[in-house]
Amino acid sequence: MMIELLEPLIPALRRYARSLLRDRTAADDLVQDCLERAIAHWNQRRVDGDTRRWVFTILHNLAMTELKRRSARSSDLDVESAENWLSTPASQEDGLHHRALLRALEALPEDQRAVILLVSIEDLSYADAAKILDVPIGTVMSRLSRAREKLLKSIREMPAEPAGRSHLRRVK
Amino acid sequence: MISRPITEDDLNAFVDQRLDSVRQAEVAAYLEAHPDVAERVTGYAAQRDDLRALLLPIADEPVPAALNVRHIAERHGRRSRLPWWAAAAAAVLIGFGGAGGWTLRGLSDPPLQGVASLGQEAADNYVVYGPDRLRPVELRAGAGTELADWISSRLGRQVGVPDLEASGYRFMGGRVVATPHGPAALFMYDNDHGMRLVMLSRPMTVDRDVPMQPLSQPAASGFSWAAKGMGYSLVGPADAQALLHPIADEVRRQIGNDV
């Protein structure tokens, strides 16, 4: 039962961890740690609770600890540059635009980035996101609102992309 | 009817398609009348689509071996020291079932009664729950009076939990289990070596007062008795009969004091 419930969650857990950490290896280490904990504490989950939400909570807390640890060690630990951590490199036409969007996402405060990822990518309900982040649902909504506004602003402030330049600057 | 004012929450839920159809239509009408807000919301929706295009494919990557949950569970199982006798009990059980033993026994023997039946029930439950690593007990020892309340409400009488610390066994917790003679209380104990004992107790209609008698089975051994209408059976590993005798005596002594 445990394995049947955990196994289908793994791809999404990897995606959430990697989107937060922007580092392939560190993210998978985190997911492994998360799975070990979920298995070790399987009896402690609420029987009527939602396994997905419970496991995401474990992962989120591990990720926040890891991010704090990294920021404490300041910038000597450089995150993987550009979009190496992505599954598929951005297509050429969209390269610049996507790069700008990812940079804007990275620039968000962690708690806002987490909300965007849980809601927009992982399709968790606002209520589940609130439980995972351990905040009231109103906080989820205001973080979501602020995050979207900031992303939009950053994208629009990006210099326009003249057709000629985009060829010069495009990512391979 | 005056509709509720449109909020930022509505706009976000509109982007995430979390609104019911009525509200969705209200927001759409509002956006039609407010092009500036509509432009912002369109930007949010495009941003959401772009992020999904970038990030969703991560989940399509093959899962690396290190994240194989079966391997992790197996490793975890080994680390939490699955006692050797649990594996032995499972092997015996599988052999038994495979040989058609269960079916034959049910067909040829008269149904057990009294403490003989109680002993069988205790052994059956020991074989099922004893090796259970995930949920050996329904309510853990720390659950306060919840377990005692549950048991007394199902059995219609109080069952005291014997304290076996002096014999080296900690109380793990318990559960209500089914027997052919109605609900029974199951208490589980373990020692430092991961050896588990099960005590089963239920009201008796036959054999209401019987002295202690041994039970010995391929996968379990122990002692059963009845006093004042309640039956008790203490079981453990098949080869632990000698060790179980003094513990059963201790349980009987404690229960005798309680009643």
UniProtKB/TrEMBL annotation, chain A:
Listed SUPFAM superfamilies: Sigma2 domain of RNA polymerase sigma factors, Sigma3 and sigma4 domains of RNA polymerase sigma factors
Keyword flag Transcription regulation: yes
Alphabetized CDD domains for the sequence: Sigma70_r4
Classification via Gene3D superfamilies: 1.10.1740.10, Winged helix-like DNA-binding domain superfamily/Winged helix DNA-binding domain (1.10.10.10)
Boundaries of every RNA polymerase sigma factor 70 region 4 type domain copy: 99-151
Superkingdom assignment: Bacteria
UniProt keywords, alphabetically: Sigma factor, Transcription, Transcription regulation
InterPro entries named in the record: PhyR_sigma2, RNA_pol_sigma-70-like, RNA_pol_sigma-70_dom, RNA_pol_sigma70_r4_t2, RNA_pol_sigma_r2, RNA_pol_sigma_r3/r4-like, WH-like_DNA-bd_sf
Residue span(s) of domain PhyR sigma2: 7-60
Keyword Transcription included in the entry's annotation: yes
Listed PANTHER family: RNA POLYMERASE ECF-TYPE SIGMA FACTO (PTHR43133), RNA POLYMERASE SIGMA FACTOR RFAY-RELATED (PTHR43133:SF25)
Family: Belongs to the sigma-70 factor family. ECF subfamily.
Protein's UniProt name: Sigma-70 family RNA polymerase sigma factor
Organism the protein comes from: Azospirillum endophyticum
UniProtKB/TrEMBL annotation, chain B:
Residues annotated as transmembrane: 84-104
This protein's UniProt keywords: Membrane, Transmembrane, Transmembrane helix
Biological source species: Azospirillum endophyticum
Protein name: Anti-sigma factor
